[in-house]
Design a protein that fits this description.
98 residues; alpha/beta; four-stranded parallel β-sheet; globular
Amino acid sequence: FGHSRMMAGVELAGQIHGDASAVLAQLEARRQGHGILVVECGKLMRIDFTAAGNLLNWVIEQKNHGIHVQFSQTHRLVAALFDALGISEQARVVLRAN
């Protein structure tokens, strides 16, 4: 990503099940029009298929508004689900080191 774009940071943590729209609305509220949104996932233990589907739609919506989403410190199992659903084709997914 270019350095001229503003970055915003938010976090996903714990377990996310079912309809994730409330969680995604919180992420969006903190975005504040920045060009790059870094979503910290180091404390995200689990996300189910339905919530990940909501997340995919949200990432595509952000992309359509010119916002680049990056998931950082992502657990390998969460990243595998992101990969299977195509989230990693729409956003940058960075694995955590351990």
